[in-house]
Design goal:
With about 675 residues, the chain is mainly α. The chain is about 65% helix and about 0% strand.
Amino acid sequence: MSGDRPSGVDAQLRSVWSERLSQYGNRAGRFVFGDGVGVTLWLAVVLVLALSWRVGFFITDTYPIANAVANLADGRLAMTPPDFQYSLTLGTQPGLHEYGGRFYARNYGQVVAALPFLWLLEGASAVAPPRLVLAGGWALGVVGLGRRLAARFDRRWLRLVAVVVASAWFAAAVVFATALDRSQLPLVALQLSTLAAAGLVAVSCYRLVGAFHDRRVAVAAGVALALATPVGFWATIPKRHVLVTALVFGSVFAFARSRQLDGRASHVAHGLAYGALGLVAWVHAFEGFFLTTALFAVDFLTEPRKSRRRLAVVGGIFALSVLPMAVTNVLINGNPLRPPRLLPGVGPESVELAPTGGPESGGGDGGSGTAGDGVGADPTGGSDSTQRTLLDELFGLLSPLFVLVTLAETVLTQLVFIGNYAVAAVSDGVTAAGEHERLWEIFVRRGNSVSLSGVNDYEPIDLSVVESTPIVGTLLALPAVAAVHLRRHGVAVSRLGPRRQTDLLVASYVVVLTVVYLPRLPLFSQLTVRYLLPVIALASYCPFRLPAVREAVTGAPRTIAGVYAGTVLAGPVLFAVVLAALDPALGEAIQFHALVGLCIAAVAAVLVVGRTLAPARVSPRSVAVGVALAGGATTVYLSLASVEYFAYGPFAFDVAGRIARLVPIL
């Protein structure tokens, strides 16, 4: 009997630890996804967007980021040419920077985010080939999604369907499997990280809308953000934009919750609103700076008085969030406020949001001085020797102070430099906002711009904001909605509720990012105005704050779901038939999408404005049709863009590649 006690104690300890781990896991899940619907939404979005995933380099800016992932996984922050796993030449890696004879990437927040995916892939690839690991992961995701949907809707047959689909998918993957070299795993991990971030964009939008409105509207908003905006286009193209968008939405949601909650929970949510932007700075320091400034301004206007405890919590969380960026900068160049973007570049010229050059280094060599100078000293010692010893001791005691003074001078110089740059960037943006032709090309009709002729092999493959995201056309109803609100409630900012304060923050983020990027746009190879992806995503959230759109979602859910599904299923077929008959070039095919998008955006805008101004004449069902067509048009473009228009690498899933070959358009 006594021999059974240790085993019984061990079993009890295992049970306790298992229960604790389960509790921690549930808390982490609620923190990230909110509830079961958030988990289901994230899983569905990731699985759907993964079907268009190609493994390859779509834009050359990805080369240094992928090289940084591979090297950091091996324990190297600095790189030399022999360490480059992708693109061995320096001139083909825009975004590569040099300091002290070594090379560094940028966006290290994005690099670090990809490491867990790389470690997971490397571990799984030790058991099975990488291609089957990806197929198996997708199949397991389908099974998990089927279980959640079956439990949610009490339909057991959904679980059976999911198992059948997953089994058939994996069997086909085994039959048609092609080799995927393990050297590609850092790139695959980078793409997986942005794919997961795209799912988080949908979840954050769902939670944000759900904080103010009906769950049905929240789910529709989350799906729209992922599948009816360019977020889906960039989900598996590992640029920073999707990750930044996810963090920006996290900041907006945390701000909204801080205005709804009380006490400690409100303080923590408030701090997380700033903390998300601190992580943005780790990805792109200057985007983080401008966004934090906008948040601070809105925060001060809407709640000028804050308790000391709230300030301490907010300041502590924000300090922790910027610590990774500061440590990374110190490890690279010794200056916590000098991101890699301010280091000399070794690739092609960049038009990134960053100043050229940097502040002049202040001071001289901290190790040089006269304290140890022996010139004129008495070699026999004496009073001079004693005096020199006392001075040495004095300087030794004061040396920490000298270090702090030097550090403070460096930080102050850097802050002044950043401040001057910020003022200049905003000034240039305001000036650019007065150029009507520029605004027209960015937001309405891009077409074959004369200013960009000759780039992309003379193919007009870029779309404007409205062309790529017709759903934002519904925002034409904003002036009418704003006029009604102002007439009823006035303009006192201090009396705004949580909803309106959040709207003000969203507007501030949209304005500040648009203004600082305007002088750099329009630019070639933007495709969907990718520099403004966070702006487009935030603008696409705004329609679900319009009463007319919410009434359409809640009043005619079957109409909006049916029209969207019909557009997504029939749209690619119609486009394939029309374009096959026209035999267009790549740019012509994409501009055909642009014209269709503009027409649908106009229809949706008219319906939403009509419902807002004359609700008796325009029914919610009509608005539902317009909104569904707008969302479906973008989804159709996203699907054809990956399948047919931009074949920059093999599909991650061989089954998807086999299906794509059946769609000859160009």
